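re: that chain from earlier
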Amino acid sequence: MLDYSFVKRGLAYAKLKRFSRPLARFEQLMRSRSYGIVFAILFTLAVNSAVSAQIADPNRKNNPYSPSPSGRRTAKPATETVAQRRPTPAAEAQTTTAQKILSIRTKAESGSLPPSETYNVGVGDVLFVNLKNSPQGSRECTVRSDGSIDFPLAGEDIVVVGQTRKTIESMLAAGVTLFRDPHIEVSVRRYASHKVTVSGLAENTGEISLRREAIPLFVIRSETSVRTTATKVTVKRAPLLKLETYNLHDPATDDVLIFPGNSVNFE
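^ sequence. v structure.
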């Protein structure tokens, strides 16, 4: 009598529902003495094939021990770093200082500001150049007779006459090479170039310095303390020396613009 215990162990191991009916038939046939050994071999091969199929295809639903397909993780591309997102140095190169200065100067000169709201530096004016990157580099500069100033960090003989403060700031910043991004602020410490001569019925006569390209007459009346007995004013326009007379009791007279080089006489 053959021992079929290994067959029973094989059935318990497989536990495959679809093989239960064929295995039962195999067991009956194997009980026959003539075919027992042959069917035992075939049965063993069938069980091994089924087990191999389960291992080879882990996504099959009838295998409770196979890894869950959802648990599988596909490889993700490496996260792009900040450095990779940055453009190349050539692409991120900023506008040169000269181009910045040209842009600022163009905008400043394109603006049609009235003369009473702007001031162009002239000979004799004292400027204070404040280099914010280094206080030690700040200094006073007097506009020389040739219209230039000396600011060593930006070069020598920098012509500034006829320029506004903002334009001078741009010019000096363009010349400074010690700092990558120089910050310069220019202010007028002493106004000396725009002169007007006042005479007549006023407490403070003589030369006064304007802080604009032109100022209304009422500003001069206030600064020179014109006497109440004055009834008219005569303005001599330079350089043609054209005479203009205005009535001081006319409110419109206060808005008459006085320019550098003019002479004002209160009568």
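The first helix runs from residue 5 to 14.
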